[in-house]
Structure formats: C-alpha cells, structure tokens
Amino acid sequence: MTQAQERIPLSPASWHDQASLAALRGLYRAGRLAEEYGTVRALLSRMPRADLPAAGQLLARLDLEEVRRHAPDLPVVSIAVTGESTVAPVVGPLTAELARHGLLLEAKVAPYGSYVQDLMRPADPAMGEEQPHLTLCVLDAHTVVGGLTAPWRAEDVEKAARTQLALLTAAVGAHQQAGRGLLVLNTVPLHHHFTHQLIDLRCRARLGVVWRQFNSGLLSLAAEHPGVVVIDLDPLIGEGVPAAEPRAAQYARARLSEPLLARYARESAHIVRARLGRTRKVLVLDLDGTLWGGVLGEDGPGGIELGVGLRGEAFAEFQRVLRQLAAQGVLLAVSSKNDADAVSRTLRTHPAMVLREQDFVHVNANWKPKHDNLRDIAERLGLGLDSFVFADDSLFECGLVAEQLPEVAVVRVDDEPALHPSALLADGWFDLFELTEADLERADRYRTEARRQEFREDFDSYQDYLDGLGLEVTLRPPDEPDLARVSQLTLRTNQFHLATERLHVPQVADRMTYPGQYVIAVHARDRFGDHGLVGALFLRRDGKVLRIDNFALSCRVFARGIEAACVAAVLRFAHDSGAQAVAGRYLPSPRNAAFAAFYGEQGFTPVGTDPDDPDAVFFRHDLRHIAPAPAHLRLHAAFGPDTGDRT
C-alpha cells in the first residue's frame, strides 16, 4: 500500500462483497452447494451482515451427510435448541455464523414450549444418547408473563417472575447435575407494549425494577454454574436491534425478532468458538489510519491525528479500548509500512499516545508485505497464525492478508475512527470462558521469552542453551485455583494436545474425584522466571495398565524437554506403583499432526486403533526400559497424597 492509497477514503461497505449472496444462491440452484462447501467460508467472510441470515437458510437446507462427504475435515457442532416460544428461526442465522468459522451445525430443535422438560430430563447413557456440544435455551418475555390474566398489576408480575426464576434455577441445576454439557441462556427483553399497559408511572417503574431483578437472577446463574453462559440481550437491543415483531409474535409465536435472533446467533457462535478452543490471542495492528489519523511518514509525529480534535479524540478512545484488551491478556503487536525509528520515537514520545512501545510484544515497522510480517511475529511468539487477528484500514492490505493467510482473522476498520471499536469487537475474537492468572501474565511472559531468545544467541548449540537455562519442571495435582487454567489448556491448546478432549472446570474437578484417576498439572520455571502452569496430564488406572487419556502442553514451552520429562515421570510412577504397562492414545486433529509420532519417540509401541474411533491410535510401553528425564532439567513429580515426591 502506498502512502497515496492510505489517504483514499473507503466506504464502510467496500470491504463487503455484495455479490456473495448471489454467488451462494447460484451454487444452491445449480445443486453444487454441498459439493463446493469448501468455498462457503470465504464467501461468508466478505458477505454483508444483513445477508447472513438468508445465506444461513440456504445452508441449513443442505443434507449434513452430503456436506460431510465433500468436506470431511470440517468439524460438526451438535447444538440442541429449546425455548419458551418458536425457536426454529434461529437455526438459519446460526448455521451461517458457524460456517463463517469453518464449522458445520447439526441442530436438534425441541418442540414448542418444552424447555423446562428438556432441561430437567436426565441423560440416559443406556439409550446411547449422544450429548450435544451445547444447549441453547432461548427465553423471551412470555417466560415471565405467559401465565398472567388481565387485569394484572406490577405485584402480579413480581410474583410470576419469582416463580419462573425458581423454576429455571431448578431446571438449570438439574441440567448441570446430569452432566449434560454447556447450557446457554439469555436475558429477557421488556417490551414497550407491555410496560405501557400500566398507566400509573410509579407502577410502571416498579415493573422495570421487577424485570431487571429477574434478568439479574438469570445472569447470576452463570456465576453459580461454570457450565452455564448467559447472553445479555440488553446491549444488542441498546444498539437499535428490535426486540420483537408484533405480528410474528402474535401469529407465529416467534417472540424475538429475526434481527435479534441473528445477533443472538452471532453471540452463540462466539461461545461455540471459545468452547472449541478457537479463541484468538494476538491482535496485530496497522498504525496510519488505524492507531492514529494521517500518515506518519508525510505528516510527522506532530501532524498525526491523536488526542486533539474530534477525530484525534476518537483515535485515542480506540487506543483505550486496545489497552483494556491488553490488560486481559490479549497480545498487541504492530505491522506497519513505516520507518522503524520514526514509529519507535512516536510511540515513546507523542504526548497523546495511550499505548506505548512497551505495550506491544513486537513492532514490525518496515516496507515488507504485511503477511510476511505476520508470519515473522507468529514465529517470534511461537504461536500459530490461527491465534491472530489483523486490523487495518486499508482494503488492499486486508484483502492481501486474507488471501495469503486465511487462518488469520481480518478486521477491516474504515475511515471513521469512532467506528473502530465496534468493528474490532463485533466478532468477539478474544472471548473466553474464564480469565485466569496465566492470561493476565501472558504479555509479560512473552516479553520474558524475548530475553530467552537473546540468551539463546549466546550459544553455539541448542543443547548448550538448554543446559544454561536452569529449567525446573514440577508435576502435581492442581489446587482449586489451578482448575480454571487446566480447563483452559484443554479448551485452547491445539498443537500439543494428543487426544484433543475439551473439558470445563466441573469436568476437570470430577476427574479428580474418581478412584484411580489422576489430573496432573505441569509447572515450569527457569532462570528468567516462572512459566506458570503450562501443561496437564489425565491418567487412569485400568487393571495393571496406567492409561494416559490426554496430554496437553502449551506451545510456549515446546522443544525444551518438558514433554519428555512428563512422560518419564509417568512411566516411573506407573512402575513404582505396580502397573505393568502404560498406554497412550493419540487422536488426530487438524492442528496436532506434528506430534503424531510423539509416543513412539518416547519408547512406546503402536498396538492398534480404537474400534469406536478408527482414527485414534493406541500406544503401549511395557516399562522394561524407562528412559530418564532429560539431564538439562530438574524434575519434581508427585501424583497424589500417597505417592510421595519422585525427583
């Protein structure tokens, strides 16, 4: 992108391809949409948001098995949809939103008004019932007022709200106690046509209090149950999304409007993405036109728009939003076509700069293609490109990065800086279930990693570097505060994740209570500081065999011998506690192929596949020859209160 191109104003719609929906319809009419499903994600990525529900209606008509034949690598997400009223209209937009993220929806829509029975129905393993990945329970105003008769007063609504909240609380508790997976609820809109049936203004105000108390009770369920998420519809309605369409509500019992269901579907897709470990970690930003107004190379530090004037204030506000994200563990980096010294000086000295040079884990200011700069940043951080979001105001640069690096999420911000925050936050790229200490410390740890890389350059061999690193590894059962981080490792780790089993906090805690099962947290530190909790092992006794059901390790600590040390500790523990063998299981995923041979490299022998899942490979170690942990590290291992410390 030239500096002249930087100054060309682009309309907000120019990033969107108005012909995408027509192309999708053409494939559908030709009967080739299932066959060409591999092109759908790209079409949807540039489709105007208003067209997505229509696209979803087309996609939802396809036969799921036919799509899977043509796109066997696409993950299928099973979602049960239930609710107070007609909920089927959410399937179309939800199909499109998931397809935008490379996911196929398998929807199971419950009958009208059956949500209480659906939530309280116990799971029946004997029936071979497969649990959905999550359940959407769509609530609306009828949840509260459906049983009222005219005339009614605010006190009647208060009584009904208390009754319904108690019923929902019991139903949610039953659903979670039965171990039926993630449950998504939503707050309930209060409609004008309902409030204004009360002509007494004080009674109307009382009704508002009652309604907000009901919604507050719903939101509190997420704090009480780690397996519950509540989507707050108020912020969506506050943006002008209509809550309901009176005719659809009356005649079709569809009591949430189609635009609101479309936004609800988008929020639900963000939850699914987080559930599958697809939360992004790094935000790479352009500078000119993105972080500040103007062109630094032409206008100089004193001439850029930042902090002064209406547009300058808008750019400063965007930087404050970025700082808020960074404070919660989002890594900020820069890829800008600019002079490096000028950028460094501006970040350090500009009086209105909210973000300073030290707020970025890396700054690439040069004249290289931006997709090459993103690859460089990913390599320096040791993260996959599917952990990245790239934001730029240039249509050209956004298009080029999207073409060259399809794994990267591209956010095109336009010429209006006041809209930058909403453009960045629209897709919830950084949403996660629970913020942990590891998240809050992430930026500092990556800065420390840069010091390790500098230390590495002082050695002629990698082994000499490891010998000088002073690495110390500790294996022990997690304390209660560690459970969220262990869960997060299973949810967000994709590369070194040998069985790719996603577990929430209650599931991790349950594993620790079962006889013969072990959950082991892996901690690491070295001369530069504490890496924190970087891995998790899930072990299970099966007669005389100790099984490694799953093993996940953060990509931050690859290739330092930690993974080999963990296996050595498990083998020694198995031998000393009377086991005759250790079995490991590798389940291929799109991201863990690099570690398919890991168990073989640790002395295990492949012994067959899983009859229930032919892709899974089993390995076995007979414990006759146990290799020691790598000599360059100190290992401490305790597998339970009766095992002692095995160093």
Automatic annotation (TrEMBL):
InterPro entries, per the entry: Acyl_CoA_acyltransferase (IPR016181), FkbH_domain (IPR010037), HAD-like_sf (IPR036412), HAD_sf (IPR023214), HAD_SF_ppase_IIIC (IPR010033), SGNH_hydro_sf (IPR036514)
Gene3D superfamilies attached to this UniProt entry: 3.40.630.30, HAD superfamily/HAD-like, SGNH hydrolase
Protein name: FkbH like protein
Source organism of the structure: Streptomyces davaonensis (strain DSM 101723 / JCM 4913 / KCC S-0913 / 768)
NCBIfam families: FkbH, HAD-SF-IIIC
Domain of life according to the entry: Bacteria
SUPFAM superfamilies in the record: Acyl-CoA N-acyltransferases (Nat), HAD-like
